[in-house]
Design goal:
mainly alpha; 76% helix
């Protein structure tokens, strides 16, 4: 049993590649939602922070680091869930196979993640060159994500998009396969697993180990390495469910 991923586009016949690309174009219908909404939210957050900090006196003991960049990742997840539930029945209505649909979707996810990471890297460079937008504000440079190498910076920005996008596809596929009950069971299951893990860590007094893991693990491994593994896992699970999902 094989999964249809973006890498399949390069490994198949020209006819199948054309079908993958045709399927990818279907996903562009929801581009204003999947890309536009997260960037609109990020832009709004940036403007609000810029106005607030421009009105406040500078304080050397209070660095102007907002962390607002995280909003784009959260809303990208939400937008992709909605996009997935809309594009899947539309594609099947056009007689697109599930394999072609998933391969086209994977291609869009990879390209979107790479481009969005590149844009964030560029904005970070502008932020540095402008001395924090002229008011010493750090919006695009979360401290533990900052890298001196632009390529590593791009990787750290891009890979989380990849993992979250496939997580959104997984949630959307669960919804199409099992409906609202399946979604609620999944959410409640995650809450219970998280609660059980918290209880176990508290009982065994192991929170210090968790804290050391996050503080001692290299950012490239933590933000890029592990999310790649999660992206592959989410993609595999989504494909297994998508094969039996109905529009």
């Amino acid at each position: 049993m094989t999964t249809a991923t973006a890498s399949d586009v390069l490994a198949t016949t020209p006819a199948r590649r054309r079908r993958y690309l045709a399927s990818a174009r279907i996903h562009l219908v929801n581009l204003p939602l999947s890309l536009g909404m997260p960037w609109l939210i990020l832009g709004s957050s940036f403007v609000v922070n810029l106005i607030i900090y421009s009105m406040l006196p500078e304080n050397p003991n209070d660095p102007r680091t907002t962390g607002g960049i995280m909003s784009i990742y959260i809303f990208a997840l939400i937008a992709h869930v909605v996009s997935m539930t809309q594009s899947f029945p539309f594609a099947l209505g056009l007689s697109v196979t599930r394999r072609d649909f998933f391969a086209g979707l994977s291609l869009i996810i990879v390209v979107e993640s790479a481009v969005q990471g590149l844009v964030l890297t560029g904005l970070r460079a502008i932020e540095l060159a402008s001395a924090g937008w002229g008011i010493d504000m750090t919006f695009f440079g979360v401290p533990f994500l900052v890298q001196d190498n632009w390529f590593l910076q791009w990787v750290l920005y891009s890979v989380p998009f990849l993992a979250l996008s496939y997580l959104a596809v997984l949630f959307g596929t669960i919804y199409k396969r099992f409906g609202q009950p399946g979604m609620w069971v999944s959410i409640i299951g995650l809450v219970l697993v998280g609660g059980a893990a918290a209880i176990l860590l508290t009982w065994s007094e192991s929170w210090g180990v968790v804290a050391r893991f996050f503080t001692e693990t290299a950012p490239l491994t933590l933000i890029a390495g592990y999310p790649v593994i999660l992206a592959v896992l989410f993609a595999g699970l989504a494909w297994l469910l998508l094969r039996r999902a109905t529009p």
